[in-house]
TrEMBL record:
Name used for this protein in its record: Bifunctional RNase H/acid phosphatase
Gene3D superfamilies: Phosphoglycerate mutase-like (3.40.50.1240)
Organism: Amantichitinum ursilacus
Amino acid sequence: MTTRLHLFSLAATTAVRKGCFPDDETLDERGVRETLACGLTEWLPADARLLCAPSALALATAALLPRPAQVEVALADMDYGRWHGQSLGDVASAEPDALAAWLQHPDAPAGGAACFSDVLQRVGAWLDQLAATEHASEIVALTHPMVIRAAILHALGAPAVAFTRIQVPPLCRFELRRAAHGWHWWPAR
């Protein structure tokens, strides 16, 4: 019996399109158009359990779908602390060493808040819990790039330092399958 987990990356927000660290923004008009145009509603499996991160962006995305989503705290984005909403260029100018450390070391905090290792631990525990409780189910999770990176690394048993090497574009789907021998990363079709 296989559990299929479809991790769907949320649309880019105004801040992200400007090269800023994510802030808790909702969908703007462009994000709504792009989300509706990406085919999520048409693709959404009828029998899949629908989950979403607790962010304004995830909740607004879920509101566009034909059925309600359950909020899952484990799908929450990384806390970027004082970097929330700031441009990458501004952070690079003001805190070059902190930014460089964060980009190279999964235990370095982002903006004095969380580090990627925290996200990896949270998401890994959630995936392990799903493996123990879900049997032959299909789950769609609306979430953020850092969460998707963490899920992929956990599934592969890859080192946390590889988090910057996984690209997660907006409005893309990544599939993990859980079988007897653990989680596997599958191409999303």
